[in-house]
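With this grant's support, we have settled on a layout for protein records. An illustrative entry appears below exactly as we store it:
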Amino acid sequence: MSKPVTRREFLNLIAASSGTAAVLRVGAALGIMPAVAMAGTPNLLHLNADKRKVVILGAGLSGLAVAYELTKAGYDCTVLEASHRPGGRIFTVRAGTLIDEIGNPQRCEFDDEPHMYFNAGAARIPSTHSNTLHYCKELGVELQIFINENKTAYVQDDNMFDGKPIRNGQLTTSTRGFMAELMAKGFDAAQIDQPFTDEEAEQMIALIRSYGDLDVNNRFSGSGRVDYAGNVEIDYLGLHSPQREMLNIRDLLKTNAMRQVLRDNEGETGPLLMTPVGGMDKIPYAFARELGNKVKLRALVRSVTVKDSGVDVVYSQDGQEHLIEADYCFNCIPTHLMTGIKNNFPAEYIQSMKLIRRGVAFKGAFQAKERFWEEENIYGGISWTNQPIRQIWYPSHGIHKAKGVVLAAYDYGTGMHFTRMTQAERIEAMLAQGEKVHPHYRNLVEKGITIAWHRMDHMLGCSARWGQMTPESEAAYSMLQNSLQGRHFYIGDQISRHSAWMESALQSAHFSMAEMDRQVRAEVASA
């Protein structure tokens, strides 16, 4: 071989085929990119006779974790939650659940069976989210595997194959074969500055051939990994020759779904995924069980006053107002809602709170009269479509039961399309668009529910969005991450550079508790 590839170019090849997550892992292993640091549970000073009072605003995951850890360390904690339930955007819908959407309240009518539920907010736990998994283990929350990608699920795009859905495996195998062919050709022609050895280069060519099912001439002409007639059954006895014709790459290039499907298992959705048995809300309810009457539901915060000696919080519950005089306050109320609550925060602090934008998310689900997807050899995973519903999720649990619950829409980022619709319009849209993936869909599902997070009471939005970090947003982020006068701490995934994950909320909580603990240790030492 005359022109081997450089390590830098090798990373580019990995990015083209496996995505940025793979590049970060390989780059860290080679020592040319920084590895991601992991946060740990804070080692808090245990208080004895010196009791200190802490008020936590919001029973989201970060607030519950703070109350749990500080209670163990001897603090007197009170959690104030405006809603009728703990968990915030961790929300599982099952028979009888109230969906508290402003202007569109719903009561779920799914069959009352343990496997008939739907995670309307957080739904997945990556195996790399060590803090989330730590609390699941410590609190006894049983976990099960969550199937994210399934090669037998579908990809549907009106722009390709006349809108006919194809199997995920058909799309990815053809696409990767085409990409591997380009990689193999590019490998021969690459310019070098720190080349691989000839032996390394030959091994890479062999790997690329195997990855893309290339022949000895580095050409892709189809794959035996799937039956391209659209079937998923493979003739293991060899009685029939598999159909190996490939999908036309020009047809595949007509769809944006190809990029979505190929990157679907990157980053947090790349490693093994898990979910609690019985629903994601098993996590916040496990915290709440440990905290008991320290969690006050339907307790609306009316004012927050930060003082040199502590924080005063006025809240209303059951028609009466109450005052809590606390030494410290941890606040996970969404920043855009907190700006409307009476407070004495500095003007620049409030401006920083207003800088955070909120992502738009919409989810919908149906009860399925029968598990029709299993008849199509689909067990868990996601079908993708270029329609507004974007995704259909098949449950990883309840296999071979009579019925199940399918996620019928997950529009993350442009969900206002559905948010502005009436409930009837949302249901009809989910039915009509689902029929393009499963032709008899309308007759197979019932009892639809929808969740538009921009209209969910006490939330009015989804996860925080910092956007491109500018000097202004960097300063705002730093201001919110640090305490006000050593007394008020903002927490939650909103105080994270990687929002929308439970792990981010927990890391934010741990960061703020560690800051408070340093202050307490200094005070105790000087007393």
User: Anything to note?
Assistant: Residues 1-5, 15-39, 189-194, 234-244 have pLDDT under 50 and may be disordered. The longest helix spans residues 502-526. The chain has three domains: 7-36+168-253, 53-87+282-354+466-526, 92-123+360-455.
